[in-house]
Design brief:
three-stranded antiparallel sheet, mainly beta
Length: about 70
């Protein structure tokens, strides 16, 4: 997912941008822009992309019988 070829342009993971906060990016070309913005000069930097958080396992719904091999 992080290295797929058809990535949707987003200023938060562009080579020209540096993240200031969760909602703002300092772009070398356009100045301060929103993190979700995009422009025609987008170049993808996979090291700036953050993977989604993994799902939390709900252990309360399991019983001891779920783990037996009988």
């Amino acid at each position: 997912m992080l290295f797929k070829k058809d990535i949707e342009p987003c200023c938060s993971y562009c080579i020209s941008g540096s993240r200031i906060s969760d909602t703002q990016v300092a772009c070398l070309r356009r100045g301060i822009v929103s993190a979700g913005g995009q422009c025609k000069n987008f170049k993808y930097d996979p090291l700036k992309r953050e993977p989604p958080h993994p799902n939390v396992l709900n252990t309360g719904s399991f019983s001891q019988e779920d783990f037996s091999l009988e």
